[in-house]
């Protein structure tokens, strides 16, 4: 990067001399090798990696499409008969399609968009060039279909909801609800007090944008969000109250319509704010044309749950609601006739009840409720009595984490769930499938392989497809029986000959002790495909310490589809590790980051890198860089300022550098509510004067997730501290800017110049020969 005040294609550079390292050469071939391992390219080197089954609704059959050396192949599986065969003759179908389309069709690149199997009449339906087509699976003849009318164009389809019995349709028009009797055609207005700030039946206004100014574009209509009672006579809907909600603004510097920068607004609450969008709940009687206000709320839109009808009941609804700061989760019950509300149970935590873990499911036939809780220190399944709110049974227990409930077999009172950490001497993050009875008995491991398992059940839940792998073990896909996990047949095994031919090696998993000297933490190491153990390599730390996430990949696909391997190809050792405070482990492990996001796990990362360097002497710990996006962008900038003696170069993209500017719900989970002094203390702007190394700040100007204000404020603090840094603002890019070719190259160049000590290929263009 040029060390001048020059502006070059959106980059503003502030001078800083490169690290005093031995100059190295880097070539176009190095960049091409790195490009080869970008997500969109490396996929061309692997085949038969996974199986995504499309199950029939009733039959125990499915089809799937898989990438092979020929191209895309289609297979059909009958689980009951334990048979796998080609779904159809692809050569013959390609001929039929060619005749129908009037163009040449490749049999292993069939243009079958939005393909649907219709088992009742043994046909396929798909779209091609905005037309709908049908294939007779018996003859492979192809027919063009007349597109069915999507119902009368009464209102926009996103604003319609039909009752379960088909008699009524409700729609939103001009902020109010209207009802139509589908049998008589009669319409009537259900509400009359709606307006642009009081909207009935509205979905949450997440990133609900309006283009301001001379080229004004109004916000698109929010999706209709209503819930019908089982007998189709009642309807639940919230009224969205925006009167006190505040707007955030973005500035589109390069609009299509004008040379004037364009302001864009959207509703967004910041941490600690009370002036937020509210939800007011109502039940409407469609037949009697009346309404009942549910006696709860108004509640803040960012924490509101959804009221659900209780099974076949037309009188009872339930909703799980959380408080700001997420210190509790409460199950409420409402009477649809009177609107009266009572509390069924309330879960409370000294830190937070994690919305990412506290999964729930109603069992209306038995008046029970399944609830996931960390109350004993690990995420486990509990069975509740819905009438009394009392715990009937702790279904699972032990030092492992339940991730998800996959299926509840209500008839046999059995739960299928995924979990990690139960099996000894295995990476605790590896996901396995289990079954257990409601009373906690007969817990069975259904996927015994020491690997990460991706599960896809049949519609009847008698079978499931299991694709299992690790970063150091290629993937295998099998069909299993749900009752005992027995493998019925092998479906696919990854073909990675082409990938291995590049010199690529599996990332190496590792485990070290955290800073407490007791807790195991896990990561992986990436080496370049032309790795030479006799050379010295700078080290790059790929980081994301958000408490809701695990950055280290566990599957084979995650091991080669990432941004770390391409960086390694340019002459680096890249590591990623999940330190104390991140997800997937015990409550105590994750709570390390509560009110402590500024810790960023850096002490664990530094300890891991130093210990790895003792084992692998080719790792040069005098040249360590770090990069990350979003929460990882916060980490990267913070690390280079918090530990200037260790981290010398950082690339921070879309960083939420001050949690007071972030979307309210995320920091309020982990930093508590209301806002306290720790918010100020953990702002990156307070560390600006510590910067000694090289820092690239990058952001998209249309990022409605992490607002670019945080990066601009960070730049402002660095300027006031007299520090040199680099800034890249990507025009018209949103939060996904880190995946753009231009930013990818900018990140490569930054580490090549400042950490590797080589002259980067400044004008190299990804995607061009």
Automatic annotation (TrEMBL):
Residues 140-472 form the Dipeptidylpeptidase IV N-terminal domain. Keywords: Signal. Residues 565-755 form the Peptidase S9 prolyl oligopeptidase catalytic domain. Residues 1-23 form the signal peptide. SUPFAM superfamilies: alpha/beta-Hydrolases, DPP6 N-terminal domain-like. PANTHER family: BLR1971 PROTEIN (PTHR11731:SF118), PROTEASE FAMILY S9B,C DIPEPTIDYL-PEPTIDASE IV-RELATED (PTHR11731). This is Prolyl oligopeptidase family serine peptidase. It comes from Fodinibius salicampi. The lineage of its organism: Bacteria, Pseudomonadati, Balneolota, Balneolia, Balneolales.
């Amino acid at each position: 990067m040029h060390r001048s005040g020059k502006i070059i294609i959106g980059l503003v550079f502030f001078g800083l001399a490169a690290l005093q390292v031995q100059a190295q050469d880097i070539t176009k071939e190095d960049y091409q090798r790195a490009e080869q391992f970008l997500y969109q390219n490396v996929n061309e080197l692997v085949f038969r990696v996974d199986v995504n089954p499309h199950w029939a609704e009733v039959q125990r059959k499915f089809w799937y499409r898989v990438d092979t050396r020929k191209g895309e192949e289609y297979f059909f599986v009958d689980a009951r008969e334990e048979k796998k065969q080609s779904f159809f003759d692809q050569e013959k179908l390609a001929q039929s399609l060619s005749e129908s389309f009037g163009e040449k069709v490749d049999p292993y690149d069939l243009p079958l968009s939005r393909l649907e199997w219709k088992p009742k009449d043994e046909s396929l339906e798909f779209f091609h060039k905005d037309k709908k087509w049908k294939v007779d699976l018996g003859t492979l003849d192809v027919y063009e279909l007349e597109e069915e009318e999507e119902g009368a164009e009464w209102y926009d389809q996103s604003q319609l909801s039909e009752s379960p019995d088909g008699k009524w349709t409700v729609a939103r028009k001009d902020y109010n609800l209207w009802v139509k009797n589908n049998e008589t055609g009669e319409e009537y207005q259900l509400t009359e007090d709606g307006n642009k700030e009081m909207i009935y039946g509205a979905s949450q206004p997440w990133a609900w944008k309006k283009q301001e100014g001379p080229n004004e574009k109004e916000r698109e209509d929010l999706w209709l969000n209503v819930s019908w009672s089982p007998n189709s006579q009642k309807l639940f809907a919230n009224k969205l109250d925006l009167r006190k909600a505040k707007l955030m603004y973005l500035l589109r510097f390069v609009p299509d319509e004008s040379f004037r920068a364009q302001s864009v607004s959207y509703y967004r609450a910041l941490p600690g704010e009370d002036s937020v969008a509210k939800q007011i709940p109502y039940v409407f009687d469609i037949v009697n044309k009346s309404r009942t206000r549910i006696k709860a709320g108004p509640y803040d839109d960012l924490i509101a749950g959804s009221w659900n009808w209780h099974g076949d009941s037309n009188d009872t609804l339930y909703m799980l609601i959380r408080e700001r700061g997420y210190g509790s989760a409460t199950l409420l019950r409402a009477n649809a006739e009177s609107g009266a509300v009572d509390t069924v149970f309330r879960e409370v935590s000294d830190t937070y009840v994690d919305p990412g873990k506290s999964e729930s499911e109603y069992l209306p036939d038995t008046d029970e409720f399944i609830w996931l809780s960390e109350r004993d220190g690990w995420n486990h399944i509990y069975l509740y009595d819905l009438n009394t709110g009392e715990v009937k049974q702790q279904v699972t227990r032990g030092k492992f984490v339940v991730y998800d409930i996959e299926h509840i077999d209500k008839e046999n009172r059995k739960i299928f769930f995924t979990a990690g950490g139960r099996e000894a001497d295995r990476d605790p993050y590896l996901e396995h499938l289990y079954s257990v009875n409601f009373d906690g008995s007969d817990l069975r491991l259904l996927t015994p392989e020491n690997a990460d398992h991706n599960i896809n059940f049949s519609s009847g839940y008698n079978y499931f497809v299991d694709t299992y792998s690790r970063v150091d073990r290629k993937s295998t896909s099998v069909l299993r029986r749900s009752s005992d996990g027995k493998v019925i047949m092998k479906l696919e095994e990854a073909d990675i000959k082409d990938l291995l031919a590049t010199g690529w090696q599996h990332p190496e998993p590792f485990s070290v002790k955290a800073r407490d000297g007791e807790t195991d933490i896990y990561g992986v190491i990436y080496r370049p495909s032309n790795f030479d153990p006799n050379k010295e390599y700078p080290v790059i730390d790929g980081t994301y310490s958000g408490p809701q996430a695990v950055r280290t990949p566990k599957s084979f696909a995650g091991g080669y589809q990432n941004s770390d391997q391409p960086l390694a190809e340019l002459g680096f050792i890249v590591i990623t590790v999940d330190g104390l405070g991140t997800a997937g482990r015990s409550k105590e492990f994750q709570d390390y980051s509560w009110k402590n996001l500024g810790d960023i796990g850096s002490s664990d990362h530094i300890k891991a890198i130093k210990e790895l360097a003792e084992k692998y002497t080719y790792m040069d710990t005098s040249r360590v860089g770090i990069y990350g996006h979003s929460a990882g962008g916060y980490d990267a900038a913070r690390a280079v300022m918090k530990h200037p003696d260790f981290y010398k170069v950082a690339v921070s993209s879309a960083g939420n550098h001050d949690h007071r500017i972030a979307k309210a719900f995320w920091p309020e989970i982990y930093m508590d509510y209301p806002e306290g002094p720790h918010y100020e203390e953990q702002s990156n702007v307070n560390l600006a004067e510590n910067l000694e190394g090289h820092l690239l700040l990058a952001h998209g100007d249309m990022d409605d997730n992490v607002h670019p204000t945080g990066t601009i404020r960070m730049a402002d603090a660095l300027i006031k501290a007299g520090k040199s840094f680099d800034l890249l603002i990507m025009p018209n890019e949103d939060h996904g800017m880190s995946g753009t070719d231009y930013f990818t190259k900018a990140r490569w160049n930054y580490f090549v110049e400042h950490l590797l000590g080589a002259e980067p290929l400044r004008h190299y263009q990804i995607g061009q020969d």
